[in-house]
Fold:
Amino acid sequence: MISQDRTSSKRVRIAKISSLSLAGALLLTGCSAEAQKGWLPADRDNTNHTGIITDLWVNSWIAALVVGIITWGLIIWCMVAYRRRKNDTGYPRQLSYNLPLEIFYLTIPLFMVLVFFYFTERDIATIDARQENPDVIIDVQGKQWSWDFNYVNEDKYSTGVQVSLNGEEGVPERLPTLYLPVNRSVELQLNSRDVQHSFFVPAFLQKRDLYPGRTNYINLTPTKEGVFAGKCAELCGQYHSEMLFNVEVVSQEEFDAQMALLEDGQVGDDYGRDSSPADVPDTDPARSSS
Structure:
């Protein structure tokens, strides 16, 4: 009997230590910078929207974690409190038609869904709202498998060609580059020349699809200078993985200087598939042989 009591006490101590260790690890993890931004690939100050998106993401996970802890706690408590005792026989007393409990099960989840819906709808409306007079308007043309950028206000354009990812140095520098002035409102008008694409800049936490014959929009204000990677996030054909681009957020002076280097006019709506450009040597043996 004494041996059983000691074994039981030891198990209780182990369970307590394990629980405290797990709680401590979760608390320490929650204090890290990665945890505070929800392990998202962006900083809060990259654009005027990244903070809103980060807060919605992190707070949703916090709410889900709280609900999960309460739910699992109640399940474990029921398993322990209402377990079959050693001398019990037959089935335990069955409970049914508990009206207050059923009302509780209905109202609490409904209230939670309404709260989640309110905050999600509020933030989506803020993010998707179009500005009346943006400082910069850029017509983004997606094509197999590259990007063209028309700077509408400046009447300038830049065309991109697919860059073969052959593992050699210098390839990322040949990617199409979208220039944005820092702290200036920007409207990206997204269009496709051939098939469906998707404009995605992970550091901006925003992605929008491009459909042939239809224009989609992204309105944002870059608030941090730097170079950010972009990609097509919709499977669009054989070389989808090579449909990459860079975004450079620069000062207004540098933006004006870059505009002065570009060609005058706007890229038209002509067919834009360009899988093996003549001015970029294709060193992929498999593709060259085909």
About this structure: The longest strand covers residues 136-143. The chain has two domains: 40-82+96-129, 136-265. The helical segments are 2-30, 33-36, 50-81, 99-128, 252-261, 285-289. The radius of gyration is 28 Å.
